[in-house]
Amino acid sequence: MNMSARQILVTSALPYANGAIHLGHLVEYIQTDIWVRFQKMRGHACWYVCADDTHGTPIMLRAEKEGISPEQLIARVHGEHSRDFAGFHVQFDNYHSTHTAETRFYAEDIYKKLKAAGLIEVRAIEQFYDPVKQMFLPDRYIKGECPKCGAKDQYGDSCEACGAAYAPTELKNPLSAVSGAKPELKSSDHYFFKLSDPSCQSFLREWTRQGSLQAEASNKLQEWLGAEGENKLTDWDISRDSPYFGFEIPDAPGKYFYVWLDAPIGYMGSFKNLCAKQGLNFDDYWKPDSTAELYHFIGKDILYFHALFWPAELQHAGYRTPTNVFAHGFLTVDGAKMSKSRGTFITAESYLEQGLNPEWLRYYFAAKLNGTMEDLDLNLDDFLSRVNSDLVGKYINIASRAAGFIAKRFGGKLLHAHIADAFATDLPGVMEAAEEIAGYYEARDFARALRRVMALADQVNQYVDKHQPWQLAKSEENAERLHHVCTLLINAFRLLTLYLKPVLPKLAQRAEEFLNIAPLHWADAAHLLPPEHLINPYEHLMTRIEAKQIDALLAANRETLGTNAAPVPEAPSPQRHAQHQQQTEDKMPQTDHISIDDFAKIDLRIARIANAEHVEGAEKLLKLALDLGPLGMRQVFAGIKSAYDPAKLIGRLTVVVANLAPRKMKFGMSEGMVLAASDPEGQISGLYLLSPDSGATPGMQVK
Length: 703
What we know:
Strand content: 15-25%
Shape: globular
Largest sheet: 6 strands, antiparallel
Helix content: 25-40%
Radius of gyration: 28 Å
Structural class: alpha+beta
């Protein structure tokens, strides 16, 4: 290990043990795995831990429905999850469970320390109670008529018809979703973590302003915290009543820790378990004076838990807080929410069972991930064409063009002379790009890293086309030149393999076997293969995706519609979000179709934000100066103040409606409209400016 090696602990959000891993989950785990593999290639001590999130009412009820114990259920699901992650080459150093002695210990320890600090309070609250099942009902297990619009069959926390949020006690004609009985209101003592305490407020204001947080996350956290002097945070109910599957609260018979209390603590439990296996010191990573780095990769729907509750708990219980929390967006398929009716709610298991290469998906996800909270779209046509073009047509093509000549004409050996100078002259930048690409990986901007790698692959393929080894092979007098050209190509292929290895670990392993080399590390980019290095016979490394494989995948997932339905979890989590997507799909308002001629009337252009500033007296507006290239400068007022710091917008590319009639506003003339995405009510996804891919320039037309 190098002398400057870092100590890094990395986690992904814990998947709920109540359903299968699907492609939406894999966005996160693949992203994390790529980053961890890169850190290990750099020589750092990087540990990746995760666990199944195993507690809560949904687990208890599903086990009861299946006639097994919760312990049997979570053991089975743990095996299924482990299988699916391994199938996509997600390489945890430890994949544990929250239903363990380690997690119980730290849950109780943190609770006791918060209680000693005066941050736990007991209050009586009224809840709906199922008289048949004799249990208090989580909000998602109460159904009735929406108090706002009257829609029937709505959940106890929000209406899927009109989007309104409300308390379960506001529902009209409420019924238990468990037994169908009319619930009763009963009082019960609950335990609260006093997040509203001034000490928590003060700490969180400082912690959430650290410069390393994603801009979108920091803006959202400041919105939740409110302005200086405000106290927008509410205390957090961390208890549930028996019957409940979880850990009983110390000295509180019949009271259990709410699943979201011990889920993040599962990171600590899993790492403690790893420490016992590897001889690591837990305190080196979790004590306040730790010099190790701690990173959480999560979906943006659980940012509140990981960037407010979790750091406040850790701080006031005497543990270190995260170095950073990396949030990502949701997955859509072909521009729409995942859908069982369309076959796009795709499980990891079905993808693998259909024989699709998991590294196709790893590459495609990486090509779309840029380190922000933007949603990611799996466009199936683009998926097919990009993988076939980039991986097979560009990268693997290099090896296949050169390997045969090396084997047949030169006994499998590379040129007998050193070629470093010739390589630098003929393929400039290929070796030197290592640190640039490393910087993109470090910043989790995998999309930019892969664009750079594929630009290098284009350069190498241009070299192939220029020197045409197949033509050189026709004449014996060109043998030395052929040997030289093919040796350069094999060395270039090795470097591209190194750059792609965090994304494509199994393909890289096969390439290493072909190249007859030890596993590649990032430092290996500094040198080429030695003279007369012997390579192994070449076997084709990857096949192309065929359209019929995509069709079969969709058909297989359409066939599962209506089977194995699981209860909806009570806690907001990636699993709940995905299920919520599926359940609400058919209730979303439909948009009327327009013709292509209607769309052609809209002039969409790329714009660079030359300046951005607050508008005095405006609660929601920012004043933007937009550079549209040949179209000149435009002034636009945009209602994005709640989501963006104007200083961090300057220099960013976005998309603007350039032919919108100018509008006279109180604060000046607005000469266009920037485009931003949000859910209909702005409750789930927040507000996100559209950004073009790298390479777009101001004034380009969006078609």
